[in-house]
């Protein structure tokens, strides 16, 4: 099993400049691909890193912001051959699937929903390939969902975009891998996003076997995410790596 990063950037500046990609990440369980947060550039980044996007069967979308959801129609198009083959399962936040007062029309087109085998607003989901549990996070899209994804014998936690709150650490307790969207460096507090200080709190309380930092804003990118990951590992004793575009993490521990 492996996780492939089609992006490691986030926030409006990095989205606009694409100095780091915003294509989300893919969990490859050996048979099928689970694509989490197909933001802008997902198809192009997949091509860049020799990933055949047509192997995606599950699309999980945490919220409606474009660095997470922009390419959801494009991925559905790719996996269904433009709707010729009904295929795929989409599990997403309400803001992605439904009309909401905050965001208006849903981001997924109605005809594209009909191309799928199944779609639903993600709460809890289970089938023979995966089990997913979600938690409502605290972000500017009020429908944003963090998730715990059980695939094969591993549990992968994904914070999605959120500020820190104690229930978040509780939700991710003892996961094998925790993927944390840390937009801000040390010394920053935000009511929309995690900082590296929050990543330390999460690592200490949730105690994942591995912490992967991603969704970097321009300030962290300047400071060097790999160096920041080293600091966090030293302070928490949790194995910590910084994602980069095209990074493949093998989960054979
Ligand atoms: Zn967001």
TrEMBL record:
Q: Pfam families from the entry? A: Lactamase_B_2
Concerning InterPro entries, the annotation shows: Metallo-B-lactamas (IPR001279), RibonucZ/Hydroxyglut_hydro (IPR036866)
According to the entry, every stretch annotated as the Metallo-beta-lactamase domain falls at 13-215
Q: Name one GO molecular function term.
A: 3'-tRNA processing endoribonuclease activity
Residues in the signal sequence: none
Q: Membrane-spanning regions, if any? A: none
Record's superkingdom? Archaea
SUPFAM superfamilies attached to this UniProt entry: Metallo-hydrolase/oxidoreductase
According to UniProt, the name of this protein is NEQ122
What is the species listed in this Swiss-Prot or TrEMBL entry? Nanoarchaeum equitans (strain Kin4-M)
């Amino acid at each position: 099993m492996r996780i492939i990063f089609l992006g490691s950037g986030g926030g409006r500046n990095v989205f606009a400049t694409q100095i780091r990609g915003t294509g989300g990440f893919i969990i490859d369980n050996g048979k099928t691909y689970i694509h989490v947060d197909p933001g802008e550039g997902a198809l192009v980044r997949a091509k860049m890193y020799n990933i055949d996007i047509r192997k995606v069967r599950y699309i999980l979308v945490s919220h409606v912001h474009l660095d997470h959801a922009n390419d959801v129609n494009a991925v559905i198009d790719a996996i269904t051959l433009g709707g010729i083959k009904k295929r795929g399962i989409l599990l997403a936040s309400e803001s992605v699937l439904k009309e909401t007062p905050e965001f208006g029309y849903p981001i997924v087109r109605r005809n594209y929903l009909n191309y799928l085998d199944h779609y639903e607003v993600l709460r809890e989901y289970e089938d023979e390939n995966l089990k997913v549990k979600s938690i409502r996070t605290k972000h500017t899209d009020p429908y944003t969902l963090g998730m715990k994804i059980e695939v094969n014998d591993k549990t992968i936690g994904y914070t999605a975009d959120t500020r820190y709150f104690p229930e978040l650490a509780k939700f991710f307790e003892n996961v094998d891998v925790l993927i944390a969207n840390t937009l801000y460096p040390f010394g920053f507090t935000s009511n929309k996003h995690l900082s590296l200080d929050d990543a330390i709190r999460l690592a200490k309380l949730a105690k994942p076997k591995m912490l992967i930092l991603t969704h970097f804003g321009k300030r962290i990118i300047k400071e060097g995410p790999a160096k920041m990951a080293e600091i966090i590992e030293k302070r928490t004793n949790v194995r910590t790596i910084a994602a980069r575009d095209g990074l493949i993490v093998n989960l054979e521990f």
